[in-house]
Amino acid sequence: MDRALARTTAALRAVRPVDGLLAAVTFVAVLAGTARLGGRLEAAGALPLALWLGLLLLARRRWPLAVLLLSVQAVIVFRTSGLTDIGWVWPVSAAYAGLAADDRPGRPGLPRAAAVGVAELAFAAGWELPATGTGPREVLGSLGAEALWLALLLAAATAYRNRLRWRAELDDRLLRAARERDLEAGRRIAEARLEIARELHDVVGHTLTVVGLQLRVAAESLDDSPAEARAALTTAQEVRTAAVRDLRALVHVLRAPGESPAPAPSPEEPAAGVPELAALVARMRTPALAIRLETTGDPAAVPAPVSLAVHRLVQEALTNTARHSGASRADVAVRCDADRVEVTVADDGRTPPGPAAAPGHGIRGMTERVHALGGELTAGRPGDGGGWLVRAVIPVPGFRP
């Protein structure tokens, strides 16, 4: 008893207000249609039929085919028993439309509704000819109107079902597009974060290394060679100024939209690229570290992204040489060929024996820069086992030296 009551309560909760409204409209429409078409309005005929057809619609969402079959069966029973004398298809219009519009997977509602409708009309034609005594012309006219009404119902239900499908597909496309936009935005944010991390590492690491080298030179030569100490301090100041400019540019990238931009660099401030490698090497030279630069080809013709990557690569490689290797000499070679730029940075530093250590942020950043341009980078001990060698090859499509 309790289970039956619980099932009944759950079924009543599943009924939507629109289903109740549709049931009430069907009840009124059956009575009004019977009266309008001259049928009999009797308490034992049209009234219970209208009430039964309306109540069945409360379950149309869960069992649309069963609701249609029971509704058609009720119409046939009431007509053949003489309790009503008007209508075959139109009293069951809501049940036909509900089944034809059913778009759930595995439920071909439209073919089933059409099959039930054809079967009902065929039964009606076979029953009316001998039972009512009317001629074929009258039966054909009556059932023809019913068949036309059935076709209109099925067409309207099909259009409604197709509209639901279109809306579902449109919502799905919009959802996929939003997800793709979110993924693309996340990818761009990740790329921007990597780029900013590389720039911060290169700028700050290089600046601190060069300033440290020049301050050490100034401290060692302050008593014996004041001019050399002054030159070292000047170089340190220039490197510091360039670093401040680069950091301001990065801060400008990180600013929120609408904030005041960073001041533009003055024309005399050096940029970062292959043509500026000579100035970079000059800043890195110290009495303890001799650096030789060799450039072949036309550096000015190298595209800006490749030129910046070469500059940062050489900068990071020399920074690592000055900071970690204890080298006394470093050779930098940049060759600009017809279709690629080849960069080599080698030093004679003291490499500790044993397996190579895991790459740090600097080597990882150099690798990411080169790979982003379609190139390859290697870093490690050269074949003879002494010092450290960094070599990169970056393709330059369409490059003409």
Spatial gap, N to C terminus: 93 Å
Helix-and-strand structural type:
alpha+beta
Number of alpha- plus pi-helical segments = 11
Mean pLDDT: 78
Poorly predicted parts: 259-270
**Helical coverage, percent range:** 55-70%
What order do the strands of the largest sheet run in, or round the barrel if closed?
Answer: 1-2-3-5-4
* Residues in β-strands, percent: 5-15%
Short description:
The chain has 401 residues and is an alpha+beta fold. The protein contains 11 helices and 5 strands; from the N terminus they run αααααααααβαββαββ. α5 runs antiparallel to α6.
Strand and helix layout:
Blueprint: H1 2-14, H2 17-36, H3 46-56, H4 64-80, H5 93-100, H6 109-132, H7 136-221, H8 226-254, H9 277-284, E1 290-296, H10 304-325, E2 329-336, E3 340-347, H11 361-372, E4 376-380, E5 388-395
Parallel strand pairs: 1-2
Antiparallel strand pairs: 2-3, 3-5, 4-5
Helix pairs in contact: 2-3, 3-4, 4-5, 4-6, 5-6, 5-7, 6-7, 7-8, 7-10, 7-11, 9-10, 10-11
Walkthrough of the structure:
Mean pLDDT is 78; it is low at 259-270. It is built from 11 helices and 5 strands, in the order αααααααααβαββαββ. Helix 10 links the parallel strand 1 and strand 2. Helix 4 (64-80) packs parallel to helix 6 (109-132), helix 7 packs across helix 10 (304-325) and helix 9 (277-284) runs parallel beside helix 10 (304-325). It is an alpha+beta fold. The chain is rod-shaped and about 135 Å long. A 5-stranded mixed sheet has the order 1-2-3-5-4, with helices on one face.
